[in-house]
């Protein structure tokens, strides 16, 4: 039983030329809107040629997805099964409006490959986008862009060990676009062109993707997979394939794999979107009903079972016999140890009783994990630990135990983790512990019911695909909630104990220890440690303490409302309190039961310089955990029982932010937590010490790949400012909890405060709660003038690239080029127009380096224009590639910049950017998050309200000449910053300024 995920709520958006008007709040209900936007004249479309579907399963038939299950059928879906064996599911969904999400799942992944075919399933995924019946060579990306889809997000695919899935989200759908989408997709799935030429063209791209995934992380992932699934097909099948098999791939061999598996009986098509589901079913049947497979069908291979080696002995505590173990040494990776109790995977009857067992398992795991976390917070021998049951690729039903030792004494950490688990196996949990976890699950499931009407069609379609993959059904949110609540009387300590013990019973125990230090451990030592008896330790059990918001102290003396009125857009209220705190409140029922709260305060990154920057990094992870008032982390957890509360903290360019997704019932409590953090912060030391340890353990991992080095150093190197450098181990060791408080305490009390509350809530009650909380804060200290004026610099280039090194694979490198742009709200239209220019650059870079050269898998260009700062923006292009291709990247980037400045783009090229951008805006604007993001800061800068009205046209309407002028201004006039990241011990290659042609057969 797969439970649907939560999604955003729908706002029907009224768009008129040059103005983004107020949206009409709407709620989808059986495909009808409660309030409808005015009719917009549209061009008459030709009569539909979609046939009436003949394969829909009637009300008296058990839908194919629910065969053998007593889970109530989700009546929103229509199911069909055609004579050729293809199955489908369709439903109407208007989230976001006028979008249709199509998923095509092929029941074949990497585990269906023969030894000589490793990587073919994934290679086929690429080739279907290369050329097909209705799409010429390399036309797929541009074709989907013309339909408004963004390549990589709206048009994408995935290959797993068990399936290949194609995913298309088509915005602004109409009859013509819907029919064209099915036509193009049918050509891709049914009649791809699998020639030697196309294989040779796509091979370098796949190898580039493989190269980007390489390095220490991949080596340890491979070691883990090979150890845990020893003797099974999964251990020797990685979806990306091998250099040898990919290099040997030819059209004939790939076609043979296609013929065996790309067949209607192996295909499921799922469609959810803003269209008549009967029409959707008709389109599936029209374009796939006459599909006849070619060649002989493949026989699904046996995936194998986990089996204990002959003579394996069970450890003293009675868990499964210990089998394969491994120790991996990677100098730049932190310590981690995972062991798993493995059981054979078997297809189940997806019944209510079966799902009640899974839900009991979830409660049992949550209790153990809370105890493990409590012990880690108290300064244990490990940084984190977690227990998780998982069914892996239809190969094993396993319970994984994962933790990170803080030091080389991994035996002590293993003993501590196992002692917590041993206690859970020996003694039932208390009813209070069960009730606590029950309350957390209940609020989550109830929240899904509240927001069922706003589940995105893309998520609903993905749920069906995932259910098919694991051979289970899907359940509506109300069914999940009813099942869970119905089993509450049976969630007793003895019942949870029984399920806990079952989670740690199995066929074989396997484990992998990863360490940076050679000689620290070996397989024999690991086996001895796992075989020793674990002494049960109940000290991590949580004491029975109930904490209520009503018992907490006031933030301060209630404040006064100094000013109140309308913001002038979207019926948003603006409230200003006597202490200077300002709030924007938009009460609407667009997202049932959901409220977003964001608090903006202080100076953000401006507050830091080289001397205190280490505390910025530590603050991102430890500030919230250090508590508030008399409440530490454990007390805050107890306080949140049965509530949906959040506490995300972020450091932006010029402000700090607290953000939470909460419920209508909990919004007042959420406001108290945020205000109390500002008004009466607590300064526990343990979260700071733990954050230091985590940062020290993770630091060397950045050096394992060029992408890691970019993540660590790009901001620092491109600005030339050490405040943006990732703190190194020396800086972290020198940091103290006392100094952490000395830095952060004044920052929490400094600068203006803006509170935004968007969602379904009682405006009067929230306004009063704001008066009692944020209105009660003491007056804020001003931000010093020199701090307020601080903006990021730009490391002006000299022509030659700066060179950094990594300690990853010798065939990995990265290259970056960046140009300074601008910042601020005053020129926000220019910022938005620069996004169009950046996407033009991105498309050309993708074509040059991926499609023509096969040099990079995912080159990209992006623009950053800080709205809260006067300057500091950049346009950046980067790619990961082989070291020898670094000069090619710089040459291509320079050429694209020159060409954009010299010659206007064509109308078609421009449309392939503006149409997807316009559709992204339309879709994003159907949720509260979009409006909150674009209006935050409006209490301090009213220009943001006016700029909101032109956001659609700014992003989607321009001219070729305007793009040429922007390119000349930003891409030509300044010397760009260049960075090359190459392997240690190598020198930066010099090469031709032209892109080399790809090899006919072997690729690169």
TrEMBL record:
Domain Peptidase M16 C-terminal spans what residues?
A: 254-309, 736-913
What are the protein's UniProt keywords? Hydrolase, Metalloprotease, Protease, Signal, Zinc
GO biological process assignments: proteolysis
Instruction: Give GO terms: molecular function aspect only.
Output: metal ion binding; metallopeptidase activity
Spell out the residue ranges making up region: Disordered. 30-50
| The species this protein was found in | Erythrobacter neustonensis
Where in the sequence is the signal peptide annotated?
A: 1-21
- Its protein name is Peptidase M16
SUPFAM superfamilies cross-referenced by the UniProt entry: LuxS/MPP-like metallohydrolase
Ranked from the top, the taxonomy reads: Bacteria, Pseudomonadati, Pseudomonadota, Alphaproteobacteria, Sphingomonadales
What are the residue boundaries of the Peptidase M16 N-terminal domain, all occurrences included?
96-209
| Top-level division of the source organism's lineage | Bacteria
Q: Name one Pfam family in it.
A: Peptidase_M16
What protein family is recorded? Answer: Belongs to the peptidase M16 family.
Q: Which InterPro entries match?
A: Metalloenz_LuxS/M16, Pept_M16_N, Peptidase_M16, Peptidase_M16_C
The yes or no answer to whether the keyword Ubl conjugation is present is no
């Amino acid at each position: 039983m797969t439970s649907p995920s939560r999604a955003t709520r729908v706002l029907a958006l009224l768009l008129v030329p040059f103005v983004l008007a107020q949206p009409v709040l709407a709620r989808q209900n059986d495909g009808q809107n409660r309030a409808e936007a005015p009719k917009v004249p549209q061009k008459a479309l030709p009569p539909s040629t979609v046939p009436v579907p003949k394969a829909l399963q009637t009300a008296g038939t058990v839908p194919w997805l629910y065969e053998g299950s007593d889970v109530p059928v989700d009546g929103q879906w229509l199911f069909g099964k055609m004579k050729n064996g293809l199955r489908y599911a369709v439903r109407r969904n208007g989230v976001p409006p006028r979008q249709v999400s199509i998923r095509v799942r092929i029941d074949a992944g990497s585990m269906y490959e023969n030894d000589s075919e490793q990587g073919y399933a994934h290679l086929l995924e690429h080739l279907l986008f290369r050329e097909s019946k209705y799409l010429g060579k390399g036309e797929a990306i541009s074709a989907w862009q013309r339909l408004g889809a963004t390549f990589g997000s709206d048009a994408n695919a995935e290959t797993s060990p068990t399936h290949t899935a194609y995913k298309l989200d088509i915005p602004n759908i109409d009859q013509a676009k819907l029919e064209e989408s099915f036509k193009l997709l049918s050509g891709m799935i049914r009649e791809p062109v699998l020639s030697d030429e196309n294989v040779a063209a796509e091979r370098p791209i796949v190898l580039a993707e493989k190269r980007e995934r390489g390095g220490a992380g991949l080596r340890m992932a491979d070691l883990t997979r090979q150890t845990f699934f020893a003797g099974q097909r999964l251990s020797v099948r990685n979806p990306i394939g091998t250099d040898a098999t990919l290099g040997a791939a030819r059209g004939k061999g790939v076609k043979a794999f296609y013929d065996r598996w790309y067949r209607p009986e192996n295909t499921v098509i799922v469609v959810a979107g803003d269209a008549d589901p009967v029409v959707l079913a008709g389109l599936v049947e029209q374009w796939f009903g006459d599909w006849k497979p070619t060649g002989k069908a493949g026989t699904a291979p046996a995936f194998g079972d986990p089996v204990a080696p002959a003579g394996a002995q069970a450890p003293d505590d009675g868990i499964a016999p210990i089998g394969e173990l491994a120790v991996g040494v990677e100098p730049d990776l932190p310590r981690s140890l995972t062991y798993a109790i493995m059981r054979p995977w078997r297809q189940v009857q997806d019944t209510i009783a079966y799902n009640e067992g899974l839900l009991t398992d979830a409660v049992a795991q949550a209790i153990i994990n809370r105890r493990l976390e409590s012990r880690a917070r108290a300064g244990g021998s490990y940084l984190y630990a977690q227990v998780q049951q998982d069914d892996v690729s239809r190969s094993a039903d396993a319970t994984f135990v994962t933790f990170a030792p803080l030091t080389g004494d991994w035996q002590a950490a293993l003993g501590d983790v196992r002692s917590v688990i041993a206690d859970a196996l020996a003694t039932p949990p208390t009813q209070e512990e069960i009730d606590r976890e029950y309350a957390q699950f209940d609020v989550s499931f109830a929240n899904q019911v509240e927001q069922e009407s706003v589940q995105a069609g893309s998520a609903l379609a993905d749920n069906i695909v995932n259910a098919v993959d694991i051979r289970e059904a899907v359940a509506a949110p109300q069914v999940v909630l009813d099942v869970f609540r119905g089993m509450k009387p049976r969630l007793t300590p003895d019942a949870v104990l029984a399920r806990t013990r079952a989670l740690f019973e199995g066929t074989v125990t396997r484990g992998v220890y990863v360490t940076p230090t050679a000689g620290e451990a070996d397989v024999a030592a690991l086996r001895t440690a796992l075989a020793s008896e674990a002494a049960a330790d109940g000290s991590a059990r949580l004491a029975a303490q109930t904490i209520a918001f009503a018992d907490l102290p006031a933030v301060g003396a209630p404040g006064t409302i100094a000013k109140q009125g309308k913001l002038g857009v979207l019926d948003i209220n603006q409230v200003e309190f006597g202490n200077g705190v300002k709030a924007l409140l938009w009460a609407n029922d667009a997202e049932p039961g959901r409220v977003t709260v964001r608090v903006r305060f202080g100076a953000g990154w401006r507050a830091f310089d080289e001397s205190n920057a280490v505390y910025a990094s530590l603050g991102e992870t430890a500030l919230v955990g250090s508590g508030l008032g008399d409440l530490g982390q454990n007390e805050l957890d107890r306080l949140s029982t049965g509530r949906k509360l959040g506490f995300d903290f972020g450091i932006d360019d010029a402000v700090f932010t607290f953000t939470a997704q909460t419920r209508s019932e909990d919004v007042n409590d959420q406001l108290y937590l945020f205000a109390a953090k500002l008004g009466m912060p607590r300064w526990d030391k343990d979260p700071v010490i733990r954050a230091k340890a985590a940062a020290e353990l993770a630091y060397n991992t950045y050096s394992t790949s060029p992408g890691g080095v970019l993540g660590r150093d790009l901001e620092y190197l491109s600005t030339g400012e050490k405040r943006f450098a990732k703190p190194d181990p020396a800086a972290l060791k020198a940091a103290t909890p006392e100094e952490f408080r000395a830095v952060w305490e004044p920052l929490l009390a400094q600068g203006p405060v803006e509170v935004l509350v968007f969602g379904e809530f009682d405006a009067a009650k929230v306004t009063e709660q704001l008066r009692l909380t944020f209105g009660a804060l003491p007056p804020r200290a001003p931000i010093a003038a020199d701090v307020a004026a601080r903006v990021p610099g730009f490391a002006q280039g000299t022509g030659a690239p700066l060179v950094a090194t990594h300690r990853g694979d010798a065939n990995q490198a990265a290259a970056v080029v960046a140009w300074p742009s601008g910042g601020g709200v005053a020129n926000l239209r220019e910022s938005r127009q620069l996004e169009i220019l950046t996407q033009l650059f991105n498309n050309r870079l993708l074509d040059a380096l991926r499609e023509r050269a096969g040099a990079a898998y995912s080159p990209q260009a992006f623009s950053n224009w800080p709205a809260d700062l006067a300057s500091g923006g950049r346009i950046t292009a980067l790619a990961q590639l082989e070291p020898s291709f670094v000069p090619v990247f710089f040459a291509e980037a320079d050429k694209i910049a020159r060409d954009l400045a010299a010659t206007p783009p064509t109308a078609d090229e421009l449309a392939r950017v503006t149409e997807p951008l316009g559709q992204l805006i339309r879709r994003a604007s159907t949720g509260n998050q979009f409006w909150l993001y674009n209006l935050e800061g409006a209490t301090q800068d009213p220009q943001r309200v006016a700029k909101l009205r032109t956001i659609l046209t700014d992003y989607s309407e321009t001219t070729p000449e305007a793009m040429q002028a922007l390119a000349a201004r930003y891409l030509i006039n300044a010397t760009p910053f260049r960075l090359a990241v190459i392997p240690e011990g190598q020198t930066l290659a010099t090469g031709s300024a032209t892109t080399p042609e790809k090899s006919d057969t072997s690729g690169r």
